[in-house]
Amino acid sequence: MVQIVNREDRISELPVHIVYDILCRIRRYGLKEEARTCVLSKTWSSIWRSRPDVIINQSIHNSFMKSTEKFIKFVDDSLRPYVEQNSRVETLRLLCLHDQELASHIDRWLNLVIKLNVRSLEIYAMFNLKYSVHEAICAAKTLTELSLRVCNFQIDNSTSTTNKLQRLISICMLIRDLKISRCWGIQNLLIFGLVNLEKLELRSRERLEKVEIQAPNLRKFVYVGVPLHNCLKAREPKLLPCTIDILDVFIRKIG
């Protein structure tokens, strides 16, 4: 006679924050490996679909590179549960975005997560996408972390020297960590009023003329200018250094 022993489902009983931590650790091995955790239990499946951080890399799966439609559907499906439940998206990271037709969809996804009070946002567009940052990002007043790579901050059909990044800085006052890498449309950058700003990284694609920073809690500042060999190739007549002024802050090295 076979005796059936009822065993407790210890996996399903794990606290939600521990499950989230496990999922984050598994993610380094790829989205497919993370998704496989759904078979562990119905609880894990539900938690995976409603995890507070949405991190999607277009280049991580061959089918996404071959079919933009599949990638768009995947992102839509990933964000739909948050919209339906009106639950917060803590983090949205859209990485290695390639196709030009994604631009309008990126704008739409940004609008969705901004309404859901996103706190951490990263957009990494590839050079062939030529993504122009949408004005809607200025409504993201809950942002504490922002990373934008290979994006355009120019204001279309405008002769104003104020770029979209300048507008964003003046509105999103809670930002603690700001990274701008290889973007264009930024000639001068004035950072005032970000009393929570602790980390600032600027990596230029084109030459900046002036950066002025007033952030009382700034602890780390990294600036990487345009490589000299790029300037020489372009035969730029004025190889003037960028002027950087840091006002009333104490900078210390973070180990």
TrEMBL record:
InterPro entries: At1g61320/At1g61330-like, F-box-like_dom_sf, LRR_At1g61320_AtMIF1, LRR_dom_sf
A family per Pfam: LRR_At1g61320_AtMIF1
Ranges where the At1g61320/AtMIF1 LRR domain occurs: 92-226
Lineage top rank: taxon: Eukaryota
Entry-linked PANTHER family: F-BOX DOMAIN-CONTAINING PROTEIN (PTHR34145:SF28), OS02G0105600 PROTEIN (PTHR34145)
Protein name: FBD-associated F-box protein At1g78730
